[in-house]
Specification:
By secondary structure, the chain is α+β, with helices and mostly antiparallel strands. It is built from 7 helices and 9 strands, in the order αααααβββββββααββ.
Length: about 325
């Protein structure tokens, strides 16, 4: 217990140092952005302001980014960062002026037939799904058609949140969602053991094809089909593991840009995994059908027209492969 205050002091010092270093790096980007803005290089100015914002978020950086977007006549970008500026600094002295600009850019988006929506969550880095389409991770801002939409937020370890929202044609909106930790899943009941085909005794009167050792005989194409299906499903499982790794990256990345890159990688791996799983399942089903026919086919005979006795009596049985 005597060492606890010392550890706390060290952690506090480390945090203070990290914040100071981040602020110093942000200042460098900020100055570079101001120079680019004065030189009319507005795209470069935006990049520098956003680089500074990643290092050390500030309402000033959001405001400057909005100004640069206005110079590029990009209403969506200007609206996004003016709204973020007020979200970060609700008591700003120029709030009335900024709100006037927000209304103007909302009107311009309305003329284009879309409007802006921002989805915020606690915690952040939740996958945003609008109308069953993944669009990014929180905090997310985008332009969509006005009207009623379905929203779902998904983050590993948390319960999915599903809700509907109405986007007005004339006004941008914020949607704030708090995610709840998922309840621990109850253990699944143990499945009843099912005897495997290799050890199960055939039903009386069954027509199971046997080899000379008394074992069920399976043809080579069946083995190849089943093996290929298993290999494809294994590959699908590998891509699913890679997808989960990318999903962890989405939640752990520090910046919004990095989160979007990780999100795109996650979606690509998820698509590949699903395609392979579908193909693998189809191949395994085909192998299962072949296996059924292998096991249900009667033992072949070398000659035609051998005599056979059944429960109905003895007679002539004709057969063979055509």
């Amino acid at each position: 217990m005597a060492h606890a205050p010392e550890v706390t002091a060290q952690e506090s010092k480390s945090t203070t140092t990290a914040v100071a270093e981040a602020k110093s790096r942000a200042t460098v980007h900020f100055k570079r952005g101001i120079e680019a803005y004065k030189g009319g290089r507005y795209k470069d100015a935006i990049d520098s302001f956003l680089d500074a914002h990643r290092e050390f978020p500030s309402p000033t950086l959001s405001f400057n980014a909005a100004l640069a977007y206005e110079k590029l006549q990009d209403s969506a970008g200007a609206l996004r960062f003016y709204r973020e500026y007020l979200r970060q600094n609700d008591g700003a002295q120029d709030k009335t002026t900024v709100q006037t600009r927000i209304v103007e850019h909302e009107r311009r988006l309305q003329e284009r037939g879309v409007q802006q929506v921002t989805v915020l969550s606690v915690p952040e880095a939740a996958t945003v799904i609008v109308n069953d389409q993944p669009v990014g991770v929180t905090p997310w801002t985008g332009e969509i058609f006005p009207g009623r939409h379905a929203l779902r937020l998904r983050r590993e370890g948390y319960t999915d949140v599903t809700q509907e929202f109405e986007l007005p044609a004339h006004k941008a909106i914020d949607i704030n969602v708090r995610l709840e930790l998922a309840q621990a899943a109850a253990p699944a009941p143990a499945a009843a053991e099912t005897p495997s085909p290799a050890t199960s005794a055939p039903a009386a009167g069954g027509n199971v094809r046997m080899d000379e050792k008394g074992l069920a005989k399976v043809t080579l194409p069946t083995w190849i089909t089943l093996g290929a299906g298993a290999a494809i499903l294994g590959t699908a499982g590998a891509f699913e593991l890679m997808r989960r790794s990318a999903e962890d990256d989405v939640q752990n990345e520090r910046t919004q840009v990095d989160r979007h890159d990780a999100f795109d990688k996650m979606e690509s791996r998820q698509t590949t995994s699903r395609v392979l799983a579908g193909v693998g399942a189809a191949v395994v089903v085909t192998g299962g059908v072949l296996l059924y026919f292998d096991l249900s086919r009667k033992t072949e005979t070398a000659a035609w027209g051998r005599a056979a006795c059944t429960q109905l009596g003895c007679g002539a049985e004709f057969g063979g492969q055509f």
